[in-house]
Amino acid sequence: MNDALDVTLRLLVVFVVFLTFPLIIGQTEHKVMAHMQGRLGPMYAGGFHGWAQLVADGVKFAQKEDVVPADADRRVFQLAPAVALLPYLLVLLAIPIGPGEGAVGQVVDAGVFFVLAVMGVGVLGSLMAGWASANKFSLLGGLRTAAQLLAYELPMLLAAASVAMAAGTVSLPGIVDAFEWWWLPWQIVGAIVFFVAGLAELQRPPFDMPVADSEIIFGAYTEYTGLRFALFLLAEYAGIVVLCGLTTVLFLGGWHGPWGADGLGWVWTLLKTAVLAFVVIWLRVTYPRLREDQLQKLAWVLLVPLALAQIALTGIVKVAIN
Amino acid sequence: MNLPIAADAPQGFLSPTGIEIAFVLVGLVTLGAAVITVTTRQLVHAALWLVVALGGLAVEYLLLTAEFIAWVQVLIYVGSVVVLLLFGLMLTRAPIGRSPDADSGNRPVALAVALAAAGALVWVVVDAFRTQWIELDKPQGTTDVTGSILFRHWVLPFEALSVLLLAALVGAIVLSRKSKDEPDANGRQNRNGPKTPAAQKAPKDQKAPKAPNDQTGQTDQTDQTEGTR
């Protein structure tokens, strides 16, 4: 195949995934939450099972006026949604869904570092939004976002480092290639730490202190309206896709499955990602919000030591195997 | 550093390749962003321009095919250091618009130090590598290569650096711990002693009126955080 065509096709596929998967997760969240909490609202639009709720939301967002507060720092305020959203598009490029070169947007040599680094950049968008809004609630939200990121970036990195040690490579396809089924119990602590820290980085409940609506309205996004606000929401759902995909690839063996034909590995990846996304939604409707001090305590007192213990365990087993 | 991959080759500077042109352009952007970082009067804008400068540096590493270094640069500097900086700014004072007091009398000294440091670095790099030429056709700075060079040839500096970081960590903990003889939470009395730069600056800060456009309702926290840095 022609090289340029190949690259264009890959980018196009990743872009389509980037546009559709977050929306699918958003729609699923509507329905799952409606069932779990007995909400009637999301079940009306469009008739059958409220299938058109997402479309209605989109139309609503598009119709709203795009307001920039008078005292805001205009350029930073307007730039922030893009800074929050684009990193997830870049990360999607590097996540492999099947074996071989054909099933990944772009093979990145230091894939683990790439995805974690770029995901960290996304949080800058929230910080910029929080500061530039000229609103004290926004600023508080931005502060909480920053504190949360600083606390949870470390355990996330350490957990990812553990699995990279186990595989002996930092390339994402390389890690899945090296995966064996017994890694599951071996790396389970790291997997949980990674997933929880990732949830906190996305500010999903129960880690949604930075956008706690009962305290600070909507945190850094308080002043946003219309499409820019929708972009922040989209960033959150894209973040769920990325986090679940990464957890699948790093800890759950990606395209490996107990059965299935050779060419269908990507089904396993998507299935695992979907199950994890369901867990993310499930956690949202199940757990109450953590307080700020509990958040920090969870990260520093529990997750960091656990991640370090996981690294030690990985090292010991690795040496023992060799 | 005698890389086996670097070879003396008769390449000239008169027929630049695409990568070299891109390298120079990104370098100019990085330099420009860095200059704006230190000259802008808007504190948070300075931090955001720093993101551009550090990101530009990461792109330069990428163009030199040092992929691992590039991502670590983004991870550590953009993802953590700048976030910490922004956190500190927002916690203390981060007014929207210009901060007239965000200027220091040390400007000429800082300029001199910066020029001297830049001169020394450029001289060292030029003197060390001279006309060595690195072929960029195949990746030269993969994680594999970086790892083996770091842990085979440069283990001792690596370990020394980690000890240095540990010392900084312990120092930060010592600085941020409250000693029992401090009178109150605001730490007003220990400002008079010329112990730290923050303490020396404190009297001036006390006199300064609070900025009207100060978002956080900034209080004594400024001095406290300065002391812990």
The general outline of chain B is globular
Main-sheet strand order of chain B equals: 1-2
Q: What's the overall geometry of chain A?
A: globular
- The DSSP helix count of chain A reads 12
Q: Please give the largest β-sheet of chain A.
A: none
Instruction: Indicate how many domains the architecture of chain B comprises.
Output: 2
- Round the mean pLDDT of chain A to the nearest integer and report it: 83
CATH architecture of the largest domain in chain B: Up-down Bundle
Task: Tally the helices of chain B.
Answer: 8
What structural class do you assign from the helix and strand content of chain B? mainly alpha
Kindly summarize this structure in a few lines:
The complex is a heterodimer of chains A (322) and B (229). Chain A is an all-alpha fold and 322 residues long. Chain A is 71% helix and 0% strand.
Fold and architecture overview:
The complex is a heterodimer of chains A (322) and B (229). With 322 residues, chain A is mainly α. Helices cover 71% and strands 0% of the residues of chain A. Chain A has one domain (68-321). The radius of gyration of chain A is 20 Å and the shape is globular. Chain B is mainly α. Chain B has 2 domains: 14-139, NADH-ubiquinone/plastoquinone oxidoreductase chain 6, subunit NuoJ (Four Helix Bundle (Hemerythrin (Met), subunit A)); 154-179 and 188-229, no CATH class. The interface between A and B is medium-sized, with 35 and 28 residues.
Q: What does the secondary structure layout of this molecule look like, with pairings?
A:
The complex is a heterodimer of chains A (322) and B (229).
Chain A: H1 3-37, H2 53-63, H3 74-94, H4 111-132, H5 136-167, H6 172-177, H7 183-186, H8 188-202, H9 213-216, H10 226-251, H11 265-286, H12 292-321
Chain B: E1 6-8, H1 18-39, H2 43-63, H3 67-92, H4 107-129, E2 132-134, H5 143-152, H6 155-176, H7 197-207, H8 221-228
Antiparallel strand pairs in B: 1-2
